[in-house]
Specification:
With about 220 residues, this protein is α+β, with helices and mostly antiparallel strands. Helix content is about 45%, strand content about 15%. It contains seven helices and five strands; from the N terminus they run αβαββαββαααα. The chain has helices at about 5-15, 25-40, 60-70, 115-120, 140-150, 155-160, 180-220; strands spanning about 15-20, 45-50, 55-60, 75-80, 100-110. It has a five-stranded antiparallel beta sheet. Helix 1 packs parallel to helix 3 (about 60-70). The longest helix is centred in the last third of the chain and has 42 residues, at about 180-220.
Length: about 220
């Protein structure tokens, strides 16, 4: 078994699905859930999923993860210390200063969460592309056209740089679903094709320049 596979198996043994009812709605409530988990072991990852009542938690040791699963479900009372209740003794509706919630926490193992896939889907995953990784080179026709159209200013360099992140290819747009590794592979496969296109453009541009110089010299002699 290779090292990446062994590492993935070790992480999966420490990965737990946490279901909380009612769903925590504030940051302090989510922190309270995390603190309850930390009582049973060191937590390396605590991430909210699309459902506000579901979380992925990764413990530092598989034994601690198995222990808290065995203790599930957990139930605890939460008091919002930041709530500024101002009930008065004369008010018939006066109540406690700090409202209380009871959270019910179910914890179980999960093999469905793919850590590697979610890491790759992160928009900031991977290194920033080097100039040689670009689909279009520094002196591309697109960048030259944008340089003439975009006004000079602080944002000029960024606005004319449409090659760095692959915005010219709809399949490589940076979204939460983009697979950056596959995008870089496609860029490398197409690099030679774009180099030939850029070379043809540069040759045509140079020929046009020589033609203009010849016409200018002819006018001078005339």
């Amino acid at each position: 078994m290779s090292l990446p596979v062994r590492a993935a198996s070790r992480v999966s043994a420490r990965t737990l699905l946490v279901k909380v009812s009612p769903a925590p709605v504030t940051l302090t409530e989510r922190r309270a859930i995390l603190q309850v988990l930390k009582r049973h072991g060191e937590v390396e990852v605590f991430k909210k999923l699309h459902d506000p009542g579901h979380f992925i938690s990764v413990f530092s040791h598989a034994e601690k993860a198995a222990d808290i699963v065995a203790r599930s479900p957990l139930e605890f009372d939460y008091v919002d210390q930041q709530h500024d209740g101002k009930g008065t003794a004369n008010s018939p509706t006066s109540g406690p200063s700090h409202p209380q919630k009871t959270f019910y926490v179910q914890i179980k193992e999960t093999l469905l969460y793919q850590h590697r896939t979610h890491i790759r889907e992160n928009p900031i995953y991977g290194r920033w592309p080097a100039p040689n990784d670009n689909l279009l080179l520094e002196h591309s026709m697109t960048k030259a056209a944008l340089s003439q159209a975009v006004p000079q200013g602080m944002a000029h360099a960024g606005l004319v740089d449409w090659a760095t992140c692959g915005q010219l290819d709809a399949q490589e747009t940076l979204t939460s679903k983009a697979d950056h590794i596959a995008a870089r592979r496609r860029r490398r496969m197409n690099e030679s094709k774009f180099e030939s296109l850029v070379g043809a453009y540069n040759a045509r541009h140079a020929a046009s320049g020589r033609l203009k110089e010849g016409d200018h010299g002819k006018d001078v002699h005339d």
